[in-house]
Amino acid sequence: MGETAEPVTDAAAMDRALRLAADAAAAAEIPVGAVVLDPEGRFLSEGRNNREETADPTGHAEIVALRAAAAARGSWNLSGCTLVVTMEPCVMCAGAILQSRVGRVVFGAWDDKAGAAGSLYDVLRDRRLPYRAEVVGGVREAEAVSLLRTFFTPRR
């Protein structure tokens, strides 16, 4: 993806993440999309769920986007970056977020079944851990929830 020249707003980043989530749904993947913004607020990387395609249990949008961001920067350390994702990160993704030192996470839909950024768990802000991230939840939540409901309703 590479960096863009202009910083973007959380809403613009979420718009891109929502498009990626729709792409995931079209590929029969759970509709979650994510983008990473560099410290200046420019697009750095993106990802969408690809677990089914890759037969990889870690194929969550956040992990895909974090790996691409680290590759683009040439470093695992993503200090100062922001992760924007359509659904609240799970415990696995929250761990990867903290290990990569992402400083800020913006997400759309809350996940009361597996969320680790404030609903079920609050891993990203746990003061017992050496690293924490700022969390902004519920950004364009209705759109993110709609994608998830549209995907899951015929499957359940």
Automatic annotation (TrEMBL):
Positions of Zn(2+) binding: 60, 90, 93
UniProt KW Amino-acid biosynthesis keyword: no
Gene Ontology terms, MF aspect: tRNA-specific adenosine-34 deaminase activity; zinc ion binding
Keywords: Hydrolase, Metal-binding, tRNA processing, Zinc
Pfam entry (one): dCMP_cyt_deam_1
Active site (catalytic residues): 62
A GO biological-process term: tRNA wobble adenosine to inosine editing
Keyword Nuclease: no
Domain CMP/dCMP-type deaminase: 8-131
The protein's required cofactors: Zn(2+)
Cofactor stoichiometry and binding remark: Binds 1 zinc ion per subunit.
Catalyzed chemical reaction(s): adenosine(34) in tRNA + H2O + H(+) = inosine(34) in tRNA + NH4(+)
Protein EC: 3.5.4.33
InterPro entries per record: APOBEC/CMP_deaminase_Zn-bd, CMP_dCMP_dom, Cytidine_deaminase-like, tRNA_aden_deaminase
Family classification: Belongs to the cytidine and deoxycytidylate deaminase family. ADAT2 subfamily.
PANTHER family the UniProt entry points to: CYTOSINE DEAMINASE FAMILY MEMBER (PTHR11079), TRNA-SPECIFIC ADENOSINE DEAMINASE (PTHR11079:SF202)
SUBUNIT field: Homodimer.
Chain's role: Catalyzes the deamination of adenosine to inosine at the wobble position 34 of tRNA(Arg2).
Name listed for the protein in its UniProt record: tRNA-specific adenosine deaminase
Protein species of origin: Microbacterium azadirachtae
Organism lineage: Bacteria, Bacillati, Actinomycetota, Actinomycetes, Micrococcales
